[in-house]
Write a structure and sequence with these properties.
Layout lengths: L6 H20 L6 H92 L17 H10 L3 H13 L3 H14 L6 H14 L3 H14 L5 H15 L3 H14 L4 H13 L1
Helix pairs in contact: 1-2, 2-4, 4-5, 5-6, 6-7, 7-8, 8-9, 9-10
Length: 276
């Protein structure tokens, strides 16, 4: 297929032909064979130069096309890698969130299970050895007293029994159990919980004064306990319900200042906004 001349070559050819025509006209149309040959040689040279320039441009264009194809392939590869990476990151984040949920669930279950295991261990603990038969003149009730003491539930078992009664709605029985536990085991690690649930039992029974005193005891005796923030918030809520707005505001502010990272602090801020 014959290649077309570029616009520049066409222009030059046109001008050359015009000039040649002018020469021919100016000479009275008496052009010699040599003049025609010269004109044909010039045109052939011009075509050759134009073809060479076109070849160079075509080579450059092919090189650019190859480079663009390589860049396009690299971009496609990077896009595929980025998509895979984002998918892997999303999958990892989803797996981490699932693990956190499982950890939270296991943490809550472990605390409850730990309490049950403690109670079971106390129930399965060997009984206190019975004393030998009393000597002559000794009180006959000594063995009975030791047997009752050996059969008495331990602190954890007593806590579990009282808490079960509270969940069943037997507030009086629950209060008695928690009170016995606090008297028997005042320094046990479950004492803060026992005091908190004792106040809760008072609240469920409608004894708001006793409940308020119980919640304040949790804060005063066990300020480092996880129950302290909830107990202080409960105290503030009781004050608010009884119409003591200023005292309630002060108590809610104490929740925020003493336990700023707790969930109760967030609730206290909401309550303060409502009381303004």
């Amino acid at each position: 297929m014959r290649r077309l001349l570029s616009p520049l070559s066409f222009l030059l050819s046109t001008r050359l032909l015009a000039a040649s025509a002018a020469v021919l006209v100016g000479s009275g149309c008496f052009a010699t064979r040599q003049d025609v040959q010269i004109l044909q040689n010039d045109l052939a040279s011009l075509r050759a130069q134009n073809q060479q320039a076109d070849s160079v441009r075509r080579t450059q264009l092919d090189h650019v096309i190859v480079q663009l194809a390589a860049v396009n392939d690299s971009l496609a590869l990077l896009n595929a890698r980025s998509t895979r990476s984002m998918g892997d990151v999303r999958q990892d984040l989803y797996g981490m969130s699932q693990q956190l949920i499982q950890i939270q669930q296991l943490t809550g279950q472990s605390q409850s299970r730990l309490q049950e295991l403690r109670a079971q261990l106390e129930r399965r603990a060997p009984a206190t050895p019975q004393p030998t038969a009393p000597s002559a003149g000794a009180p006959a009730g000594g063995d009975t007293a030791h047997a009752i003491a050996a059969a008495a539930p331990g602190c954890n078992e007593l806590f579990e029994l009282a808490l079960n009664q509270l969940h069943r709605g037997s507030t009086n029985t629950a209060r008695t159990g928690f009170q016995d536990l606090l008297q028997k085991c005042p320094n046990a690690d479950i004492a803060p919980d026992a005091q908190f649930y004792l106040a809760q039992a008072e609240e469920q029974a409608g004894e708001m004064a006793g409940a308020d005193s119980g919640y304040q005891l949790v804060v005063a005796r066990y300020p480092a306990s996880p129950r302290a923030a909830t107990a202080l918030y409960k105290h503030a809520s009781i004050l608010e319900a009884s119409g003591k707005t200023d005292a309630a505001k002060s108590a809610f502010q104490d929740v925020i200042s003493k336990f700023p990272q707790s969930d109760e602090a967030v609730l206290a801020k909401d309550q303060l906004r409502q009381l303004k």
